[in-house]
Amino acid sequence: MNPWLDAFAPLLGQLPARTASDLSLSWIEVGIAASLLAINAAVSLLLKLGLARQIATSSIRMTIQLAILGLVLKQIFDLSMAAPVLGLAALMTVVAGISAIRRIDIRFTSIYPTAIFAVWTSSWVVTAVTVLMIVRPQPWYSPQVVIPLLGMVLGNSLTGISLGLERFLKELRQRRGEVEGLLSLGATRWESCRDLFAGATRTAMIPILNTMSVAGIVSIPGMMTGQLLAGAPPIQAVQYQVMIMFVIAAAIALGVVIALAITYRKVTTTDHQIDWEQIRWAKKL
């Protein structure tokens, strides 16, 4: 036998085997997965990345947040009422909008309301279409359906909006001379910003397009993995995964366009000028 397997044989022998229909985990087994983070810590120490503390902090924070979410969801599932579901959805949306901006180094006045509005509008519109016209659970506010779907859409939307806003604002700053040159030659504010707008939108769409292009070849995405682990037929799992990919892509595109359109209107004037005073670097804590 392999000497490495022999070394772990006593531990493996104490772990009960499971059937494919019963894959529930205990906290001990979650702890085994957590021990794999030693790889991240080793890489950080070896390359002197200075991330060991952040890895530990992020891991603890994630575990606590998800544990709290699990307790909250249990209560909401037991109640099975529309108000708690919509309340949690609203809280998730606001947090997503704030999180999108926290990743951006350059900002403008009222960027937080802009991001929250863009995330809220795009995610809720697309999720509503998905829930009411595609999945159609009974009741329509079924928390087992609404919360996971909205969570996946929000997570991807905030990333796209964050990438798009940062690219647009940075490019606007870095290409200030070019933009002002176009304005001085008689270009409108839209004509001077159109290429920046398109480039930022393209940047925001790249992650989801990359994910879609390799799904099923390089990776098995999250929803499909979850359904397979839950025992769903493979074809049904594929159908749900394809559906959620289309939904996420639509939400990102809609959210990014809304966020950039509002930003473009905020940082330009009706006199076809750029309000440079609004665009500033974020203060470092």
Please give a structural write-up.
- This protein is mainly α and about 280 residues long.
- It has 2 domains: about 25-80; about 80-280, no CATH class.
- It is built from 11 helices and 2 strands, in the order H-H-H-H-H-E-H-H-H-H-H-H-E.
- The chain has helices spanning about 5-15, 25-35, 40-45, 50-80, 80-100, 110-135, 145-175, 175-185, 190-215, 220-230, 235-265, and strands spanning about 105, 280.
- Strands 1-2 form a two-stranded antiparallel ribbon.
- Helix 5 packs across helix 6 (about 110-135) and helix 8 crosses helix 9.
- The chain is globular and about 75 Å long.
- The N and C termini lie far apart (about 55 Å).
Sequence-ordered SSE layout with sheet pairings:
Layout: H1 3-14, H2 27-35, H3 38-47, H4 52-79, H5 82-102, E1 106-107, H6 111-135, H7 143-174, H8 176-184, H9 189-214, H10 222-229, H11 234-267, E2 280-281
Number of strands: 2
What proportion of the residues is helical, as a percent range? over 70%
Total of domains:
2
- Which secondary-structure class do the elements indicate? mainly alpha
Give helix and strand order, one letter per element, not per position: HHHHHEHHHHHHE
Spatially, the strands of the biggest sheet line up as 1-2
Count of individual helical segments: 11
Summed over residues and divided by their number, the pLDDT gives a mean of 86
How far apart are the termini?
55 Å
Radius of gyration: 23 Å
Low-confidence stretches: none
> What does the main sheet amount to?
2 strands, antiparallel
- Percent of residues in beta strands? under 5%
What is the overall shape? globular
